[in-house]
Amino acid sequence: MSLSLEQSHDFAADPLDLVEACLESAGWDHERDHDSAVQCIAQTRWGEMGALIASRRQPPGLHFTLTLDLKPTAARAPAIAKLVLMANERLWLGHFDYWIDDNVVLFHHTIPMLDREEPHPGEVRAVLAAATDAVNMFVPAFNFVIWAGKSPEEAMDAAMFETDGEA
Questions:
Q1: pTM of this prediction?
Q2: Where are the alpha helices (DSSP H) in the chain?
């Protein structure tokens, strides 16, 4: 038996209007590319990073992608791929992906839109927060692997290290 993804209603609302309102509220610069995508700039601890939120009709969903500002090297590809797996084990929403051919690390999440016209604003805010938190936590680990030649395990240990109090 096959699951049908056909929607039971027409698209009256534009879910990207709500996305733009959430981006405005979060203080993220953004611009509508065309009818089905919004480009934005995420403010992270490690600088500004480009993101894209695209609306798909089949299957219906809002796809969020944030490109990490990293410069991976081909020689470090296996270590980066392993670190992506290790980081994904610790994420509560979304995931990292490593596109080896393009030599880029991304954060992804899709909000399913089956049988509804737009997401709840809390869903959009949760994705923005999850992406920012993931980038803030794991960019140093990726840089340890890329620039310092550390193993994924050493990089993850350093990223997960938390201090108590202030110095």
A1: 0.84
A2: 15-26, 77-88, 121-148, 152-160
